[in-house]
């Protein structure tokens, strides 16, 4: 199995985040006869509703992660573009003018002398100085990792949508089974 494939030896990879799979209830009578269900429709519906709520919570977390990655990738690519520009200007005897983002929607002009080092903001109040080549290697690696993670998150969100549907169908099937059972009991009395 290769690390970036969406398959396992058993077929398509279910979930990168370990999301539990919802099992489709094909035979409701057999499902309701299981010892853990013991025919208590309210209990079964409550369990299914809890499972549905857990999937919703997971979806919110994954959507947040997807949003963060979608913002992070362009920032990394912009930084990589700047590193490439600095590499081109590295052996030039003249300074060059550039604009940089000071804060949201606020840019500042700067005169940049040729350099062979750059400081990268790593987050968590950490900034480190790198050579241009090391900075480029780090950014390329981070972009690849972010894109791979985004792909995994997108896959997990698709997987979650399937689990929502399966859980909702199961809830409807159990509810309808109970309605038919009650109608049959009412008709027999």
Please supply descriptive tags for the structure shown above.
alpha+beta; Helix Hairpins; disordered N terminus; two-stranded antiparallel ribbon; 17% strand
Itemize the secondary structure elements and their pairings.
Elements: E1 7-8, E2 11-12, H1 28-33, H2 41-89, E3 96-103, E4 106-112, E5 117-123, E6 126-131, H3 132-188
Antiparallel strand pairs: 1-2, 3-4, 5-6
Give a written overview of the molecule.
By secondary structure, the protein is an alpha+beta fold. A hairpin with a 2-residue loop joins strand 3 (96-103) and strand 4 (106-112). It has helices at 28-33, 41-89, 132-188, and strands spanning 7-8, 11-12, 96-103, 106-112, 117-123, 126-131. The chain has one domain: Helix Hairpins, CATH 1.10.287. Helices cover 59% and strands 17% of the residues. The protein contains three helices and six strands. The strands form three sheets. It has a two-stranded antiparallel sheet. A two-stranded antiparallel sheet has the order 3-4. The chain has a two-stranded antiparallel sheet with strand order 5-6.
């Amino acid at each position: 199995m290769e690390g970036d494939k969406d398959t396992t030896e058993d077929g398509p990879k279910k979930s990168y985040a370990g999301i539990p799979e919802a099992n489709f209830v094909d035979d409701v009578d057999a499902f309701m006869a299981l010892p853990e269900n013991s025919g208590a429709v309210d209990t079964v519906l409550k369990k299914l509703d809890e499972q549905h709520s857990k999937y919703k919570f997971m979806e919110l977390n994954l959507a947040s992660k997807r949003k963060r990655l979608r913002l992070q990738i362009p920032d990394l690519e912009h930084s990589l573009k700047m590193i490439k520009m600095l590499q081109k200007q590295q052996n030039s005897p003249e300074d060059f003018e550039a604009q940089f983002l000071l804060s949201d929607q606020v840019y500042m002009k700067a005169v940049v002398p040729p350099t062979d080092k750059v400081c990268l903001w790593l987050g968590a109040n950490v900034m480190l100085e790198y050579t241009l080549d090391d900075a480029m290697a780090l950014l390329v690696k981070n972009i690849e990792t972010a894109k791979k993670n985004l792909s995994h998150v997108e896959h997990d969100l698709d997987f979650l949508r399937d689990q929502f549907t399966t859980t909702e169908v199961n809830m409807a099937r159990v509810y309808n089974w109970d309605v038919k059972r009650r109608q049959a009991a009412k008709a027999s009395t």
